[in-house]
Amino acid sequence: MAFFIVFICILILILLLTWGKLNAFLAFLVVSLLAGFLLGMPVNTITASMQKGIGDTIGGLLIIISLGAMLGKLVAESGAAQQIANALMKAFGPRYVQWALLIAGFIIGIPLFYGVGFVLLVPLIFSVVYQYKLPAVYIGLPTLAALSITHGFLPPHPSPVALVTTFKASMGLTLLYGLIVAIPALLIAGPFFARYLKKIPAAPAAMFAAEDKNAQALPGAANSFLTALLPVLLLIVTTVLTYAVKQASPETQRFIAFAGDAPVVMLCCVIIATFTLGICQQRSIKSVMTIYADAVKDVAMILLIIAGAGALKQVLADSGVSKDIALVMQSWHIPLLVLGWLMAAVIRACIGSATIAGITAAGMIGPMLLTSQTDPNLMVLSIGAGSLMFSHVNDAGFWMFKEYFNLNLKNTFLSWSVMETIVGIAGLLGVLVLNIFISQ
């Protein structure tokens, strides 16, 4: 009976989001209350359970996601993202322009949220298409695949950060493993797959052609690269140091652990960026703070959606149904990494949001992870890969790609949806291969 109730609640959630067009945060709250009633929880404990779920979920994410948004917004507004792309284009030349854009998408995608990166890179893609008279989908899809992969696999993006917190994984190790898994997935879903898309007709509107900006106003290339990649570099360095100083004094170990804590890393990066991309570029502190305020507005709804998913997760946990589901699923004899991927993939296909799919699957798989030997860092990546599977008509990214590139539905499915599916499958295979080496 409990399984039927959970199925009905998930179905209602999907209908509220798709057919009812309800805001995701409101939908999660409604379904959380309904789940509590149907699962027999005392009525005076349901709201308390929801509040605990919201607090536990958002408490560890608020700093990281907010600071990540601030950094990404400043990278975009300062022209650092444009400088990165320009430097790569100059280094690779017209012959390898697709690779230049792909690397630019990957680098820019690490600090920028997906929607911001998409809107930022599309004009650059079209300017290259116009300049070199190249097929738009062939050139553009690998770049957007890089954005999608960083969104699903790598901190400080909301879903990976939320999963790291849920599974008590290591932010640094998850980032390292994520880079190892992401690169092969990107090569397969990007340049390799795009070779078969050269004949897809696309007519990007001329209004999207990027305007040339004054190069003198842009920050330097070294400054742009280092500031954008600083969170990644610091997390990797502190993670390596954690293992390198195991014989050091407890004080040294505690300091390195503190310095490598994700909120501390992100705060340091934002402070540094305030100077390197703000004050040193003749921007006033007030204007930089305005950029930061706008960035937080951009991610406010993301934070609320994550909070709503946390409320539903806690209701399912407190009702005991999560443990029941965990016990039944354990009898399926499916490796936990594959099961987490499958759950996220199904929810993604039904709902369309990678973030919601990842967090909802994490809530269901969490109890099983506690009793298994599965590496929590790999579980983050497995669910992240599943959450990218088969983007279609219920995903905003699907429509952004279709409308920006002026494609029909058939060709959008053949290009965008297939690319996202390749990313999801390649990501899972990469996680399973990595697990072989880690578990030895």
From TrEMBL:
This is Gluconate transporter. GO terms for molecular function: gluconate transmembrane transporter activity. It is a multi-pass membrane protein. InterPro entries: Glcn_transporter. Belongs to the GntP permease family. GO terms for cellular component: plasma membrane. Pfam families: GntP_permease. It is found in: Cell membrane. The lineage of its organism: Bacteria, Pseudomonadati, Bacteroidota, Chitinophagia, Chitinophagales. Keywords: Cell membrane, Membrane, Transmembrane, Transmembrane helix, Transport.
